[in-house]
Amino acid sequence: GQALRKTLEDEYEVVLAEGQTKVAGKIFRIGHLGHVTEADIDVTLKAISQALNKVGFKASSASIGAPTQRS
User: Is the pLDDT of residue 41 over 70?
Assistant: First the structure.
């Protein structure tokens, strides 16, 4: 969880929250502030897919393409 969240924040400027209480350490939550477009969601899902691969999970981004890394 920590490695995924750090990779997303550092490399893609995507911030995830941990699960709470009974699901702590089992899930992550995607939040937003204000208006969110379909493109925003697409970029976020692509970043999660790539970050999962970077931290050792197999994730396919075939159906959503590859994210644009922010610098």
Answer: yes
